[in-house]
Specification:
Largest sheet: none
Number of strands: 0
Distance between the termini: 44 Å
CATH topology: Growth Hormone, Chain: A
CATH superfamily: MFS general substrate transporter like domains
Number of domains: 1
């Protein structure tokens, strides 16, 4: 073998190795060097998943103690509902601001102080409960909502900064599964903490915030930015241009994601209400375990979906449409089969599995839709609409339930069918999602 041939082979091996190394780098639009990252991505995944988990715990863990809170503070049903709704509305309003700040400075520069505000406001809410001060309690809950705005929505943008291809989809699926896991365990955890003292959940929550804060600080190394942030006028023009170019499928995706959570929280509110009434009379931890059944279906499906889609546009489109079709069919069947509890829970579980197919696909498309410079704003707008879906679900379902249980499922199955039509005709990712 000639020296020239050996040299060419050596050059070929070196070039291939360089390409492989390049493929392992996280996809960022404004970094030119591989950031200093922990050796174990599992630790990063764990730290990232704690952020949406504490977000869910901050709201859902309080649901079991609301009747006691109303009695202890002597407040009305509407004032009690504000303990949950004001948190969600405050977060929904502030999320776009948090998204802009994360684009201008950094993701961790928003997440870290947000977790501090979130946890500290939980302590203040606990003292409001001890002092029998509804004013202090509700002000603290609004402050918690402001802190919540800079947590899970910004963590979604951070995933887009850190990973690419299959890793990004897997991490986004894990975040959605963590969100769902929080929904599963929080009512049970809230009920157990109430056995100590009814306001224990307010003081337990900051502990979870502290653990998440430590994980974000020490386990996640955010890629360094080398480009200067855009001036606000240029930044807003870029965001407007994104919607001008991709608004048709982005808005359809936003609607589908917010509707999925509106339906999920609405049907859980419906189920929670009928479980406490005869002939079932299921309350406390037992009720939490029953509510966990459809949520568990969503959690496991979301994690599996995130692990397999790997930015495959054909598979993403297929799973989104299957998920929405499952939601539409199961909710339509619930019009006639909501009297049998076992069949009804089975139908709600099928709908939740459909939600688990849909949400990781939407997350992957939306985080990959834009460059890093505007990613925080786009993911935040999406998260803001999801928060509104969560906030309006229970009260709207309650209003519909007062009219007729049939009207409830006619309405939500029609909405799911509308979302299916929008996604089928307007959301058509390429063979490989960016």
């Amino acid at each position: 073998m000639s020296a020239t041939t050996k040299s060419r082979r050596k050059l070929s091996v070196t070039f291939t190795s360089d390409l492989d190394a390049e493929d392992d780098r996280p996809a960022t639009s404004s970094t030119s060097a591989k950031p200093d990252r922990p050796k174990s991505k599992s630790l990063e995944y764990v730290a990232l998943s704690t952020v949406p988990l504490v977000l869910v715990l901050g709201n859902s863990m309080l649901v079991p103690i609301l009747p006691t809170l109303r009695q202890e503070l002597g407040i009305s049903q509407f004032q009690t509902s504000l303990v949950i709704s004001l948190f969600s509305f405050a977060a929904a309003l502030i999320i776009p601001v948090a998204g802009y700040l994360s684009d201008r400075f950094s993701r961790k520069a928003v997440i870290v102080p947000s977790l501090i505000v979130y946890g500290s406001a939980g302590v203040l809410a606990g003292f409001g409960a001890i002092w029998d001060s509804y004013g202090v309690l509700i002000a603290a809950r609004a402050l918690q909502g402001i802190g919540a705005a800079g947590t899970a929505p910004i963590a979604m943008a951070l995933v887009g900064d850190l990973y690419k291809d299959g890793e990004e989809s897997r991490a986004l699926g894990l975040i959605e599964a963590s969100n769902g896991t929080g929904k599963v365990v929080s009512p049970i955890l809230g009920s157990l903490l109430a056995l100590i003292v009814w306001y224990a959940a307010f003081f337990a929550f900051p502990v979870f915030c502290l653990l998440s804060l430590l994980g974000v600080l020490f386990l996640i190394k955010e890629p360094k930015r080398q480009n200067e942030p855009k001036p606000i006028s240029q930044y807003l023009r870029s965001v407007r241009q994104i919607f001008a170019d991709r608004g048709r499928w982005l808005i359809s995706s936003f609607f589908a994601g917010s509707l999925a959570l509106f339906i999920l929280f609405g049907v859980l509110f419906f189920l929670s209400d009928i479980l406490e009434k005869p002939p079932y009379s299921i309350e406390g931890v037992r009720k939490g375990l029953v509510l966990a059944i459809p949520l568990f279906g969503m959690v496991t499906t979301a994690y599996a979906t995130g692990a397999v889609i790997r930015k495959n546009g054909v598979l993403i489109r297929l799973l989104m449409n299957i998920g929405l079709a499952m939601m539409t069919a199961s909710l339509a069947l619930a019009i006639w089969f909501n009297a049998n509890l076992y069949v009804f829970i089975g139908l709600l579980t099928v709908s939740s599995i459909g939600t688990g197919l849909l949400l990781p696909c939407l997350n992957t498309m939306i985080t990959g839709a834009v460059d890093k410079a505007e990613r925080g704003m786009i993911t935040s707008l999406y998260s803001s609409l999801r928060f509104f879906g969560v906030a309006v679900g229970p009260p709207l379902f309650g209003w519909l339930m007062a009219k007729s249980h049939t009207i409830v499922f006619v309405t939500v199955s029609a909405l799911a069918l509308a979302a299916l039509a929008l996604v089928f005709f307007l959301v058509k990712p390429g063979k490989q999602v960016q």
